[in-house]
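Researcher: Please translate sequence to structure tokens.
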Amino acid sequence: MFNSKIAMVRLSETAMFLLIVTFVAPSLASNILYPVESESRELRTLHGLWNFKISPPSNQLIGFDEKWYAVRFETIGDYWKMPVPSSYNDVSTNSSIRDYVGWSWYQYEFYVPKRWTDDQLNVFLRFGSVHFKSIVWLNGQLCVDHEGGHLPFIGDATRFLKYGELNLIVVAVNNTLRPDTIPQGYTKFPNDSYKYPKDYRIYSHEFDYFDYSGINRAVHLYTTPKAYVCDITVLTSFGNNSEGVVDYKVDICGNNVSECNITLLDANRNIVVESNTCSGQLIIPNVIPWWPIMSGKKHIAYLYTFQVKTNNENSDYYRMRIGVRTLQWTSKELLLNNEPIYLRGFGKHEDSIIRGRGYDDALSARDFYLIKWLGANSFRTSHYPYAEETLQQADLEGILVIVESAACNLRIFGSDVMKFHKSVMTEIVNRDKNHPSVIMWSLANEPYNNIELSVPYFRELYQYVRKMDPSRPITFVNSQQIQNAKAIEYMDILTLNRYSSWYSDSGHLELIQYQTYNEVEAFTKKYNKPLLITEYGAGAIPGLHSLPETMWSEDYHVTLLQEQFKTFDSLIFNEIPILGEMIWNFADFKTPQEYIRPGLCVKGLFTRERQPKMAAYVVKARYNAFKSNSKLQNQSLNCV
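Model: Translation complete:
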């Protein structure tokens, strides 16, 4: 139970505290480069078993009142051990932790070397993702706070650390979503004493994946000199005579240093070109472009190394891999390096047994092996930005990525939500702007864009993101019928989530070709823009078979996909501007408890354990029949 009277008395205190936090300890929003080691930088993680506590639902502010941020949990008692990075929900055997909503607390002790202060280094504390609201203390002093899951934030730890001594880090995490956050959540106290006890709280959200919480991604401490590289922006293109062009800008923070040396290295670490300015243009002779997998090119996913050295006494070195490629989009197609791209892939989730949304190198490696085994060339980060390590791997493997914000099922549009949404998109673009694998921004998934308020909302948001990045197409994922869909005319690419013979006309596989073809044709004609199928599919319980096929069987899953494949082939044959086919979903994933699902969404081509269902083999056969990334070279085309 949740005591609303206690909460109301103390919420004003918390609001004042959080206001002070935001003013005193803002995240270094623009200083978000991925942490790497170099001649000038040291890097260490704070991974392991942290102490963990949850605040009682009836006394949510007890941790602030009793100053848990300044005392060791061993002196308080009643705590658990919790791995970092990992979601906390599925680690223990306690349902109160699995379903917990509110303030949870993490604590860890560590040493840093005394020479860090002797060498007069900056020390930064970086979290890859904490869901959702987080406040961080070092040795009892407020260091940084951040609101919004799935994205990194940084605090300057230099003056808070005890060098050569034991340090205490405490993180307070609140996973409560609100109507003004991205994504949105809702809390209500039902006025029904017959069914619910007094002050009973019901917390809900509309998205259909489990809202895993906690410190989900890496925690790093890293050092820099006092003057250091804090941001890099690159934009690539092609010049004449097989030249590559890299327009770049390097930001240096700290002491008054404005000069730097730039060196571009090839894959064999040979110097290609150099510059002695912090912003300018590099010309690469005989450039090797970055091509996605399945392109049929000699070099796939070729990466150069962009090396920066500040030009001062204590130089800072930072290196980042970049790919040289271009994107254009027309009313009919999406072009990468001036060649049409047909996307073959799926939506995914960061989801696994025990770890939840916690990033795991082994799981990520397995996923990329499976993506390549299928012959896919793309995925969407449904329904939130994925770990930076995932995008780095996509750069290396040549997998195309649509990066999506966490605005899933957005239904309240207003100034507060817009402010939050713009902040999220700023963080996403700042983080992912230099990845060659990232080919599109998705502002939202399945918003209520049948509402008139969505029109000015998405028009303004589109314009805001377009000013930040002129180089990539922008969209949001639409699920509305054509007569109700609003705001999509402002997007560069049309999208469609559609589940013919599953959510609509259930069991009627014979309607798939008729319905999907007509709808895609209608959308593309009305708006004169290409359309990407962003979701389609069916649930399949592993091992369940039925002849003839019935819903929830693996046989039905296979037949449904095959009917959709025929539709896509017909659309291609008749030159309807379809950009690709993305299945829902790559693998089964956990959902909230409800009577319509057995604890999981089972629409995956793979089980949650990453083993193939029947459908995976059918998709593998189709995707591998494409001999390049162009839909025009599809050898499986067999329209009737």
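Researcher: Any highlights?
Model: The chain has eleven helices and 34 strands.
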